[in-house]
Specification:
heterodimer, A: Beta-Lactamase, Beta-Lactamase, 22 strands, rod-shaped, B: alpha/beta, Rossmann fold, 5-stranded parallel β-sheet, 5 strands, 22% strand
Chain lengths: 831, 125
């Protein structure tokens, strides 16, 4: 039910999360490992650098040495081949000078067959060829036309050799000649021609002596030099097109160019018999490194390249040229052979490095253990501390930094122990407080729920009330810029206006549009009240949806926002059309009543006026009779005359009372204030009423309060009328005893007239209506005492008009006191 | 002894008679006029000591007659007793008239009051 937000965290000690410390072993973070890595770096980096520098120097020296040796080997191999060629050329030149050959060739062609010269020449040729029976395949004589006329290989006799260089060159130059390698299928029949012209006595060329060597002679010369420089060193012989003529280790590459040649060149060489048939690709390898090295050999006789297709081993290569032929001799050795001392050196270095590493590791590990031992033990203690045992103490093993650390650690643990103990106490206290707070919170929540339920019931009740009453209830916010926002509109607005409530919520001006044009000013004016924080209640007309006009009363209570910008009005709008109509009817009725009342007053005034004249005649004549203006009266006549006069006097009082009553009712009676002496007032009353009291055998007494001013202000005639009425009444209703008239000053602001009699008294019930018009205590008394019953009513109305009060103190059979209390005025009031 | 002259201006015959008798009882010589116009004509050539004046008169109202008396120099000594049945009118003329009596007027009262209004020189004679 209630939320324990932060309470759980308060049970934990406010320490950092425990640090996991590895317990022994060789991890990256251990001290031993770090020491080992540091030692290794220190030991091995110089060693590595040294090895690297040494390797580079040695490698350069070895390479330089190898290049020079390879060049020497190449030159030695080239010299061997040059020697063979020069020797053979010289030999052929010498042999061509043998006379037999010229003699033979001088014979006419038809005499040559089976001549002795022919036999002799052939024998010489045979003998010459025998000097190298392995590689010499033919010794031949060609005549001036290039036709083979004598040959140790009889198959060739008769063949025309004019298309070959070994004929044309010596024939035209007269010099001995050595040809390139001529390829005859199959390849192993390739041959090398040496030729020299045969001169006659005149020095003219009579024919050509040719010797054909198998091309294998070149391969033999090359292979002979294998391993000349060292293990796996070998030579390669190439012609001017870089077609291999001999190869020390891969003979199958013979007659293949290093890189593919141009197809035109291939075709030309094939036509010259210097290449076997086949495409340029078939007749070539694709060793571009080798080709590039060859191309630059005139400038740089050394290079490094792959030389065979058997392996991709790199060879150091030296190149040299032959003297007579445009051929090159290449001498090579795989680098790994002559660099092998480096590998040996590297192995030594590595062994050394491993040995050093082993020593370093052992030393570092030992040192790490030596240094880390106390720390590891301290760590174990720390682990216990981190597991919650704050009483454990670390052993101080030395006075060095680790010892200081252990001391500091012990001090820290002790401090921590104190803190944790303190903290636990605080946590307990806080937990207790929190528990109490939670309980309090729970109670408040329960209370809050009850309040909420009550609020819900009130809300529902309010909703019911709003829905059940016939009034429209609203809440409207007036903004500073004149906008109005309907925050709440009760459903009754539909009943009131006939328009759906949505019309009003959509546009606040819609309500204003329903207000009767004549009443718009009234509604607009109330905004001024609202802005002053004053509540406002206005009545105005609304035009309903059906066109009917109704009256409403709009009571608004305003609440101004603290920023004084906006204010909210809570209001009730009631349909007061019926009330308005009733009011109108009432006003109309009142007007009519007023008119009727004025008519009545006028009528009474007229009646009194019209009564007075005949009444005056009755009274006048009767008095004249009484006064003896005519003849003296008899006693009986005198009595009757007296009665006539009394009746006329009564009638006069009646008329006066009626007139006063009419004036009072019509509100037309005006008081005339003058200054007078209270003593005069008493005198006048006593003078007027004295005879009347005397006639009834009553005593009329009077008294004036000495504190009363000599003169006061008031309507003297009306005061006379009041006093005469009260005293007259007192005399009228009192049969014996006295009537007392007193004027007093009960307080500085009022004066008071008291008329006291010793009459029958007035009942408590009668006190309630004795001052009502046309009422007397007992209806029968009207007949006894006469009068219309207006006297006391007129007294009360006159006293009220003067701003005073009239009251009565009476007891049955004890008499009555009428008290007139009036405000004291010393200055005449101007009407 | 020469009687002072008084004029009774009252249209009601009975009242005129009663008022006349009352003033005669107060030793006045009396003359009765029952019309406002006639009253003004009569007042032009007489100097009554006392005029008993009714307010409701034919032809010319008693109020006008009173105004005429108050504006005529030869009537400066004339005392006017207003005798009216209209208490409201009486109230408004209380300052102009010498006495205002509201009907019904007592015979004896009028006699006594009229006697008090007699001019002093006349009283002395």
């Amino acid at each position: 039910m209630y939320v324990t937000g932060t309470s759980s965290s308060s049970h934990e000690t406010p320490t950092n999360p425990p640090i996991k410390i590895p317990r022994g072993g060789l991890t990256v973070h251990s001290l031993s490992t770090k020491l080992i890595i540091a030692f290794l770096l220190v030991a091995l980096i110089p060693l590595g650098l040294l090895a690297f520098l040494n390797d580079r120097t040695t490698r350069a020296a070895l390479k330089d040495n190898a290049n020079r040796a390879l060049l020497l080997a190449a030159q030695q191999t080239a010299t061997g081949i040059d020697t063979f060629i020069e020797t053979t050329v010289n030999t052929v030149e010498t042999e061509a000078k043998l006379p037999i050959f010229n003699n033979y060739l001088r014979l006419p062609a038809e005499q040559r067959p089976e001549s002795t010269l022919e036999e002799g020449a052939l024998a010489v040729l045979q003998e010459l060829s025998n000097k190298d029976p392995i590689f010499i395949t033919s010794y031949a004589l060609l005549d001036e036309q290039g036709v083979v006329v004598l040959d140790t290989n009889p198959d060739n006799i008769g063949l025309n050799q004019t298309g070959f260089d070994y004929f044309t060159e010596p024939f035209e130059t007269g010099q001995p000649f050595v040809s390139g390698v001529h390829v005859v299928e199959p390849v192993n029949n390739a041959g090398l021609y040496f030729s020299s012209p045969v001169h006659d006595a005149a020095g003219n060329v009579s024919g050509i002596l040719t010797v054909r060597y198998r091309a294998d002679i070149l391969q033999a010369l090359i292979i002979k030099n294998n391993d000349l420089f060292g293990q796996e060193s070998f030579a390669v012989l190439l012609d001017e097109h870089h077609i291999r003529l001999a190869h020390g280790v891969q003979p199958d590459l013979i007659f293949k160019s290093v890189v593919p040649l141009e197809p035109d060149l291939v075709a030309e060489l094939q036509a010259e018999g210097r290449l076997s048939s086949g495409s340029a690709t078939d007749l070539a390898t694709n060793l571009t490194g080798f080709e590039n090295g060859l191309n630059r050999s005139a400038v740089q006789p050394y290079f490094t390249a792959e030389l065979t297709t058997m392996s991709d081993r790199l060879n150091s290569v030296a190149v040299t040229r032959l003297k007579r032929l445009p051929w090159s001799v290449v001498f090579a050795q795989p680098q790994e052979i002559f660099l092998s001392p480096i590998w040996a050196q590297t192995r030594t270095t590595l062994v050394l490095a491993f040995m050093m590493a082993a020593i370093v590791i052992v030393a570092a590990f030992a040192m790490g253990q030596l240094m880390a031992g106390p720390i590891v033990r301290l760590k174990a203690v720390a682990a216990k501390v981190s597991d919650g045992d704050l009483t454990v103490q670390a052993e101080v093993e030395s006075e060095d930094e680790i010892g200081a650390l252990a001391k500091t650690f012990n001090s820290m643990t002790a401090q921590l122990h104190k803190l944790v103990t303190n903290l636990e106490q605080q946590v307990q206290e806080r937990t207790g407080k929190l528990t109490k707070a939670n309980e309090q919170l729970l109670r408040e929540i329960v209370e809050h729920e009850r309040t909420e339920e009550a609020l819900q019931r009130q809300r529902a009740f309010l909703h019911q009330v709003i829905n059940s009453i016939s009034h429209h209830v609203y809440m409207t916010e007036f903004t500073a810029d004149g906008e109005q926002i309907h925050r709440y509109l009760s459903p009754n607005i539909e009943t009131l206006t006939g328009h759906p409530v949505e019309m009003f919520t959509a546009d606040w001006r819609f309500w204003q549009s329903l207000i009767h044009p004549d009443d718009c000013d009234v509604v607009t004016a109330r905004a001024a009240h609202f802005t002053q924080g004053e509540n406002s209640e206005v009545e105005y007309r609304l035009i309903q949806a059906n066109g009917n006009i109704i009256w409403v009363r709009d009571s608004g209570r305003v609440e101004v926002d603290p920023d004084q910008q906006n204010y909210t009005v809570y209001g009730v709008v009631s349909n007061i059309t019926e009330r308005k109509e009733a009011e109108d009817a009432l006003a109309s009725a009142h007007e009519q009543a007023l008119q009727a009342s004025q008519l009545k007053s006028q009528l009474l005034a007229n009646v009194s006026h019209d009564l007075r004249t005949p009444l005056n005649a009755v009274l006048g004549y009767a008095e004249m009779l009484q006064e003896g203006v005519y003849d003296p009266l008899t006693t009986q006549q005198r009595d009757i005359t007296k009665k006539i006069i009394a009746s006329a006097a009564n009638l006069t009082d009646l008329v006066n009372e009626l007139l006063d009553q009419a004036q009072l009712e019509a509100g037309t009676l005006k008081l005339v204030s003058t200054t007078f002496a209270p003593a005069d007032l008493i005198d006048h009353v006593r003078t007027t009423m004295g005879v009347l009291a005397e006639n009834k055998g009553l005593q009329l007494t009077s008294q004036i309060d000495s504190k009363l001013p000599g003169t006061i202000c008031g309507d003297y005639n009306r005061l006379q009328q009041i006093l005469l009425n009260l005293v007259g009444n007192a005399i009228k209703f009192t049969d014996q005893g006295q009537v007392h008239l007193g004027i007093y000053l009960p307080d500085p602001n009022h004066w008071e007239v008291r008329v006291t009699d010793t009459g029958p008294g007035i009942s408590t019930e009668a006190e309630d209506y004795i001052f009502d018009a046309f009422r007397q205590v007992d209806a029968t008394e009207t007949r006894t005492h006469g009068g219309a019953g207006l006297g006391l009513s007129i007294v009360k109305q006159l006293v009220t008009l003067m701003g005073g009060r009239v009251s009565l103190e009476s007891e049955i059979a004890q008499g009555s006191t009428f008290i007139v209390n009036l405000p004291l005025s010393l200055i005449p009031e101007t009407a | 002894m020469k009687r002072d002259f008084s004029l009774i201006i009252e249209d009601d015959q009975d009242l005129a008679t009663i008022f006349s008798e009352a003033l005669q009882a107060a030793e006045y010589e009396t003359e009765i006029i029952q019309d406002g116009r006639l009253a003004l004509e009569r007042l032009a050539d007489t100097q009554p000591a006392v005029v008993v004046l009714d307010l409701h008169l034919p032809q010319i109202s008693g109020k006008k007659v009173l105004d005429q008396i108050r504006s005529a120099k030869h009537l400066a000594a004339t005392r006017v007793i207003l005798a009216t049945a209209d208490p409201f009118m009486a109230e408004s003329l209380r300052e102009i008239a010498d006495l205002v009596l509201i009907k019904p007027i007592s015979f004896g009262q009028l006699r006594d009051l009229a006697a008090r209004l007699r001019p002093p020189d006349v009283v002395g004679q």
